[in-house]
Amino acid sequence: MSGQTYAARAAAPVSAAVRTRAGALWRADRQRVRGTWLWPLTVLGPLGVTLLGVILFLMRHDYMVKPFLEGKTSGFAVATGELGMIHVFAIGLGAALLASMIVDLEHRSDTWKAMFSLPISRWRTYVVKFAWCAGLLAVSSALMSVGYGALMVWQHLGPLPWRELATIGGLVWVAAMPLLAFQLLLSAGFTNQALPLTVGILAPVFGMGMSRIPAWMPWRLMTQALVYSTGGVVSGGPGVALTWYTPAQIAAAAGIETVVLVALGALLLARREIR
Amino acid sequence: MLKMLRVEMMKTQWWLVLLVALMGPVLAVSLGVNPGDASTGAAAWKTAYGFAVVRYAWLFYPLLAGVLAALICRPDHRSGGWKQLLVLPVSRTNVYLAKYLVLAAMLAVANLLFGGVFVVAGLVDHLGPVGIPWAQMGWSLLGGWVAVLPLAAVQLWVSSRWKSFGAALALNVCFTLPAIFAAQSHEIAPWYPWAQPVLAMSGLGPTSAEDIALGVSMTTLWVVIVGGLAVALLGGLWTFARADIRA
Questions:
Q1: Cβ atoms < 10 Å from Cβ of A154
Q2: Domain enclosing residue A90, as ranges
């Protein structure tokens, strides 16, 4: 895939872009995302976490299912207790990877220049890229919920708790948005993806237990969402020093941070001199 | 070969390597070195090191190997770097080995930085100047470095072929995340390569047997670490030597 291919793909829907802007930009990015690693990653991530769950159940079946059989915990708690933290790490690292890959397409083939010499709004381009990543992460999150459900059916962990399954997928996704916005800002700002991705792989270190950073920060927010969704402390999660956020607080914090970070990123791209 | 090494050293953006390598330790350490009970001396240092090393080596250090491997191939993936390099009378084996050696050096630097940052942070965080576990740290840092070498070889294998930083790192994430469980399992821990850095560094690995070297059992050291390194390095060399370089 040479630079020309991307340039050609990027330039193709331009006449449409002039008429229906955001929609056309969305379709332009769909062209670009096709045939890259973004889609496989979106599907393989949750699949991998679910497979890990399968291995866990195969290996430690008795230990894990015992509290459920004794009536001490719900089947949902058994399914999410150990996997929950991996789920959060996977979504957090996935956000960093998707954000990096979707702008690295432009960095590597220098299509920024080709795109912005056309009458295309820069901030719309940026927001559409964010929307694409958010959409892909939503697919991943939904698949995670499906994965938990499948594990529960397989292990006969009682009737499926639809509400909880939707919450763990949805709320963690909402809480991941500020982190995604932050990573996209970094990835768009640096041509060399080493720096943004290193910050990205630090996310689990931030989010893990005993973290001293405030709970509203993007990294801790995801753990907060997980703790609410699973209804308690999770393995590897924060311990006693935990701040409990309600879903409304999580959503509000995530919303504000996302808007600010996306606006900042769009502004930086709009102001940047493309060479 | 020496010339190739010098070329690779020159191409490397060392400031970036240092920055990237420093971020993890600084964070792992700044999240709290002192376990909190305000004690000083050898025991407190040991506890503090245990905490810091788990945060650093469980996910960050193996993932860092992927970032650095991609970074070392980056100049060659951009604007026909491979072509320019390989039309010269150099052997591809030497090019690849030089890259691997520089990568290994970077990872050694990263571990030394972690040790340095930890000691400084411990002194700042009132652990006291007495009882710094130099010997334990030395073996731990060495063991972690040896354990990360096969992972680095795998990452260089894919990074030398894939242009995308993200794709190579995605593979790394897929292998590294299961280490969270693998390292805790008695059956899998000795066999899962991506769990070895944290096991070797933290002393969470085998404790009873007498045939322990560098924090892991002899079997693990030779079969998983050395064997894995040989397979990944030869595989990478084989692929790179036959690769069709177009861009």
A1: 12
A2: 36-271
